[in-house]
Specification:
The chain has about 250 residues and is of the alpha/beta class. Helices cover about 35% and strands about 20% of the residues. The protein has an 8-stranded mixed sheet with strand order 1-2-4-3-5-6-7-8, with helices on both faces.
Length: about 250
């Protein structure tokens, strides 16, 4: 079952979907899926498009409650991207889903994985994090301030140009998130690092750098033949389901 609601986050209105199992007993565990930052033309409206379907599948197969929200400027959510705003959005989602003794984990894709790591590093409510195709070094991932600013505009995650930070400020806001430092603060909470062996957007060496920063206290899964887009890869789904089942 997939419930849909809207969640206020500052000046943004976020689409939030929460999936529960129709096939297995529902546990007190909840997983939040965090999409990445699209940088291709017009992809802002589609960046989270597959996640509600993935949420339903994961919920039905695992018994976990699975939530996915589209962050500011993405999909049907209003607002404009900034790393600070997205961190605020994700914190609002955690506040919404936290009920009683629910145990929360995050699974992030691309930049969403970096966001998940930063959130977990400062929020003890998060009991575990899975990352997929996540950059360890955001300075290299962003490239120049001008190029990054242009990519955000082209992707369409901007509701109002007046709300978009200037190029240097936009990039610096992203670089305030440091995946390498964040992941070091998460163990002994559980960690999974997934990456495609043929990812040309984020090198597979970034996954190994994240593992090293966690001092090896994470599961590493390199998916052979896979590129950057892992959300629909059945091997990624199987890897994530296995991780969920081991932590029921």
């Amino acid at each position: 079952m997939l419930a849909h609601e809207q969640l206020k986050s500052g000046n943004s209105l976020l689409d939030l979907r929460i999936a529960t199992s129709n096939a297995r007993p529902v546990t007190d565990h909840i997983l939040v899926l965090v999409h990445g930052l699209p940088r291709a033309m017009g992809m802002g409206r589609q960046a989270a498009g597959l996640l509600p379907e993935l949420a339903e599948h994961l919920a039905n197969e695992s018994g976990w409650i699975v939530a996915t929200g589209t962050l500011s400027g993405v999909g049907g959510s209003t607002g404009t991207f900034s790393a600070t705003q997205w961190r605020h959005d994700l914190n609002g989602i955690l506040n919404r889903i936290e009920e009683g003794e629910r145990r929360i984990s995050l699974a992030g894709f691309g930049f969403g994985g970096a966001l998940a790591l930063a959130t977990a590093a400062s929020d003890e409510r998060v009991r575990g994090v899975a990352t997929f195709a996540t950059p360890a070094h955001l300075e290299a991932w962003c490239s120049s301030a001008a190029d990054f600013h242009r990519a955000v505009q082209v992707a369409g995650v901007v509701a109002d140009e007046n709300d978009l930070l200037a190029p240097e400020a936009l990039r610096d806001d992203v670089l305030a998130i440091d995946p390498i430092s964040s992941i070091a603060l998460i163990p002994p909470r559980r960690l999974l690092i997934g990456h495609g062996a043929d990812d040309i957007e984020v090198p597979v060496s970034d996954a190994r750098d994240l593992l090293a920063s966690a001092e090896g206290r994470a599961e590493l899964r390199i998916i052979q033949g896979a590129g950057h887009q892992l959300r629909a890869d059945p091997r990624m789904v199987a890897t994530l389901l296995g991780w969920l089942d081991r932590h029921r």
